[in-house]
Specification:
With 190 residues, the chain is mainly α. The chain has 9 helices and 4 strands, in the order αβααααββαααβα. The radius of gyration is 18 Å and the shape is globular.
């Protein structure tokens, strides 16, 4: 929705996927630390296998120490490039682990989007093509690696409750975006 309004959105997962590609330093370090079994026959990292190794063996912090700094560096580069081209752009980074990565201070404002726990499970099941039990297990596993929503909401500048209708969510997004656009216009150029 923010992109539709004109925001330039950088997706942390897409950045990470780029860094997981063969030939990238992150790729090399992941294979070195977690073993060649995480490499698929086509040379790409099997993210599901990596996740299984990491989460089942208590190695989340080890993975994060490899991936987060590289993702942050690449995001900074992308933000600088966008800002140089469009000095008044609203630039957003969409990421689940901004607080956990210690990256909150890199941003002028923080938005947390939340919904009810049952909606998280149902939406994940639909997106991932899983049954409810598998989706519940995966959402719980991922939630253990994140701050609780209540804590994220406390730390955020804006909270968008995505539990209601699409129109209600869109109204919240439009209000927040209008404020961010005003702030971006008054921001000094990088």
């Amino acid at each position: 929705m923010c992109s539709d309004l004109g925001a330039r959105v950088i997706y942390a997962d897409k950045v990470a996927h780029e860094l997981y590609r063969p030939g990238q330093p992150v790729y090399e370090e992941l294979v070195k630390r977690f073993g060649p079994e995480i490499v698929q026959p086509d040379g790409e990292i099997d993210r599901a296998k990596l996740a299984s190794i990491v989460f089942n063996n208590g190695r989340v912090e080890e993975l994060n120490k490899i991936v987060h700094p590289a993702v942050i560096r690449r995001q900074e580069q992308l933000m600088h490039e966008i800002s140089a081209r469009e000095p008044n752009a609203v630039i957003m980074v969409e990421a689940a682990l901004i607080f956990e990565a210690g990256a909150k201070n890199r941003f002028s404002k923080m938005i947390v989007v939340t919904c009810r726990p049952d909606q998280k499970v149902a939406r994940y099941a639909l997106r991932a093509g899983l049954d409810e039990a598998a989706a519940t297990e995966e959402v719980q596993r991922r939630s253990k690696a994140q701050l609780p929503d209540e804590e994220k909401m406390r730390r955020a500048d804006y909270v968008i409750d995505n539990s209601g209708s699409l129109e209600r969510t869109r109204q919240q997004v439009e209000r927040v975006y209008a404020v961010l656009k005003t702030l971006a216009i008054g921001r000094p150029s990088l």
